[in-house]
Amino acid sequence: MKLLIPGGAGYIGSHMVRYAQEHGHEVVVLDDFSAGHEWAVKDCESLRVNLLDQDKLSQLLKGRHFDGVIHFAAKSLVGESVKKPDLYYRNNVVGTLNLVNEMLNNDVNNLVFSSTAAIFGNPVTDKIAEDHPKNPINPYGQSKRMVEQILADCDRAYGLRSICLRYFNAAGASDDATLGEDWRFSQNLIPHVMKAVLGHSPALQVFGNDFPTPDGTGIRDYIHVEDLARAHVAALDYLSAGNESITCNVGTGHGTSVLEIIAATERISGKKVPHEIVARRPGDPSQCYADAGLITEKFDWSPQRNLDDIISSAYAWHSSHPQGHDS
């Protein structure tokens, strides 16, 4: 297949590009490289453009056909979205509308959209299925929810078929430690654990040890970034077979606690993770993890990587890239 990958130079996008190439697909990356890194995208055409630049986007894509689009281009920091909601609605919603417009103009009808479990808001059940109530509590989650609705409406109106993949917690790095998550720009737990164990930050703060969980710390669902890449190709294969639009959770189907993450890191690295217990953060649920039954049923997909794979790959990446992509 010939694939267009907006946001293909970012953390998840760059893994997607490499996976697609390794499995015989032709890739064109579309990115403004404001958050992504040009060096992370190799052996493919790159179109430098921001999705908000409708004129340039139209010029670059005019007359070009793709078998599918895998759309990662978005702002994704929850805290920043609260401080700058207009930035998030403009970038994530308007940018996607511009992309959809160009897809329709060029008769490109298959889209896989990078969504998020943040659309669920504060969970009302520990195990979260696709029909869990959607009550985003920040503009980031709200913007993704809005795009999901836009895509459903465009399917009904124009036959633009889409699959929305709601990620839980993407983690880990490439097997060769050349692609990974830049801890300078991440709010995720595992990069901060790595930063602490490698001595590049003070003690890790563990937010609460009095949750009603086996060890008292919060439990989340961590999915290896390479498994995520596989899920996107499986989604496109599903659409290419003529199936209808669908929305799926992407997770492992089980949770891992903060202390379990720390213990695994200490075992794999042979080093202690300096950490301290601090008060809970308001609104943090005790545990949440994906009900991944639907994606397994529809796409014949299931995770192949476990927690040790996530931790060992992240440790190798951060050890060799202490300044993130600038290393």
How would you describe the overall organization of this protein?
The protein has 327 residues and is an alpha/beta fold. Helix content is 38%, strand content 18%. The protein has helices at residues 11-22, 54-61, 78-83, 85-105, 139-158, 189-197, 225-240, 258-269, 293-299, 307-320, and strands at residues 2-6, 26-31, 45-48, 68-71, 110-116, 127-128, 161-167, 169-171, 204-207, 219-220, 222-224, 246-250, 256-257, 275-278, 289-290. The longest helix has 21 residues, at 85-105. The model has no long low-confidence stretch (mean pLDDT 94).
Class of secondary structure makeup: alpha/beta
Query: How many DSSP helices?
Result: 10
| Spans of at least 5 consecutive residues with low confidence | none
What strand line-up does the widest sheet have?
3-2-1-4-5-7-12
Global morphology? globular
Task: Say how many strands there are.
Answer: 15
Mean pLDDT: 94
Furnish the topology, listing elements before pairings.
Blueprint: E1 2-6, H1 11-22, E2 26-31, E3 45-48, H2 54-61, E4 68-71, H3 78-83, H4 85-105, E5 110-116, E6 127-128, H5 139-158, E7 161-167, E8 169-171, H6 189-197, E9 204-207, E10 219-220, E11 222-224, H7 225-240, E12 246-250, E13 256-257, H8 258-269, E14 275-278, E15 289-290, H9 293-299, H10 307-320
Parallel strand pairs: 1-2, 1-4, 2-3, 4-5, 5-7, 6-15, 7-12, 8-11, 9-14
Antiparallel strand pairs: 10-13
Helix pairs in contact: 1-7, 4-5, 6-8, 6-10, 8-10
How would you summarize what this structure contains?
By secondary structure, the chain is of the alpha/beta class. 38% of the residues lie in helices and 18% in strands. It has ten helices and 15 strands.
